[in-house]
From TrEMBL:
Every Histidine-specific methyltransferase SAM-dependent domain range: 21-319
Gene3D superfamilies in the record: Vaccinia Virus protein VP39
Organism classification: Bacteria, Pseudomonadati, Pseudomonadota, Betaproteobacteria, Burkholderiales
Molecular function terms from GO: methyltransferase activity
Pfam families, A to Z: Methyltransf_33
Transmembrane stretches, start-end: none
Domain of life: Bacteria
Entry-linked SUPFAM superfamilies: S-adenosyl-L-methionine-dependent methyltransferases
Name of the protein in question: Dimethylhistidine N-methyltransferase
Organism: Pusillimonas noertemannii
Keywords: Methyltransferase, Transferase
Gene Ontology annotations of biological process type: methylation
Length: 320
């Protein structure tokens, strides 16, 4: 099934655990079939994601970076000096590093599911910023964050950029933010980057680009499932579908069967009719009001809201 013998996977901690296989199998057998978006991020998937962030249609990454640049002094004022900066989904740590100059954090805690990638990034970063204490945590924090003793309990600033919150549905987002507030300790604050509701044409283009990078990113999930589950998906049987669901205020990504297919994996199988879909990602879009309501319901008081001139993306600061 897997046509690449050297595929290291990455992204997901080397795993292929029973629990992972059970989760994937359950997702494929569901009606409708669905898959947690974390399985999009094997090594190739992470590279495809990095690449699609450069597309003209995919505005979130560069718009957020522009907001950070334009408002860095306001952000620093809101956060206060000497924070314990906790970077959730740090990846290559570039976004946090761009704020080191103004934030002057006392301690930088980088958390990411991709532990090896993170440790390399942090080693590089530490040599450039010898005065900042740094901790790398290889952790899937989506079900709750676990910080070790060495992380001071006061003045924590949780950094959750890139619209990552958008992958949570409303209930999970509320649970996640409440959990952060509870694990925050004294004087915790939050710096959040979220994507905003806008014209469907702009949203649809961002998730169905002309070059087909987002399609490749989505379809690559099937290669990863072949690797993780030893399934026998033929990528050519499937096509990328993405659209803005206005009623649910979310982009949905699906993989749609181009013809009737039978997919097999050890212990089970599933038939898909032509046109049947696997729901692979939801990306929720907020308004200023819906975001404030979510934060407040989870025990966070929004203090600042920064956006770009077009109002496409928002960076929000909140405190407990
Ligand atoms: C990484 C979840 C923020 O929802 O925009 C990009 C992922 N999916 N293009 C997003 C994604 C398709 C991205 N997040």
């Amino acid at each position: 099934a897997d046509d690449c013998a050297n595929d290291q996977g990455g992204g997901i901690a080397a795993g292929q655990s029973d629990a992972e296989r059970a989760e994937i199998s359950r997702g494929l057998l569901g009606s409708p079939a669905q898959m947690p978006p974390k399985y999009l991020y094997d090594t190739l998937g992470s590279k495809l994601f990095e690449s699609l962030c450069l597309l003209p249609e995919y505005y979130p990454t560069r718009t957020e970076a522009a907001i950070f640049r334009a408002h860095r002094h306001d952000i620093a004022r809101a956060a206060g000096p000497g924070a314990v900066l906790v970077d959730l989904g740090a990846g290559n740590c570039a976004k946090a590093e761009s704020l080191f100059g103004v934030l002057a954090p006392r301690h930088y805690v980088a958390v990411d599911i991709s532990a090896d990638f993170l440790r390399d990034a942090l080693d590089r970063l530490q040599s450039c910023h010898p005065d900042i204490r740094m901790t790398a945590l290889g952790q899937d924090f989506s079900q709750g964050l676990h910080l070790p003793q060495e992380v001071p309990a006061d003045n924590r600033l949780f950094f959750y950029p890139g619209s990552s919150l958008g992958n949570f549905g409303p209930d999970d987002a509320h649970r996640f933010l409440s959990g952060l507030r509870q694990s925050g300790g004294r004087q915790a604050s939050l710096l959040l980057g979220v994507d905003l509701v806008k014209e469907p044409e702009v949203l649809n283009a961002a998730y169905d680009d002309a070059l087909g990078l987002t399609a490749a990113f989505n379809l690559n999930l099937l290669r990863n499932l072949n690797r993780l589950l030893k399934a026998d998906f033929d990528v050519r049987d499937w096509t990328h579908v993405a659209f803005f669901n206005e009623q649910k205020s979310r982009i949905e990504m699906h993989l749609q069967a181009r013809r009737a297919v039978l997919v097999r994996w050890p212990g089970s199988s599933r038939r898909f009719a032509e046109g049947e879909r696997i729901h692979t990602e939801s990306s929720y879009k907020y308004t200023r009001a819906s975001l404030a309501a979510l934060l407040e319901s989870a025990g966070w008081q929004p203090t600042d809201f920064w956006t770009d001139p077009a109002g496409w993306f928002a960076v929000v600061h909140a405190r407990t």
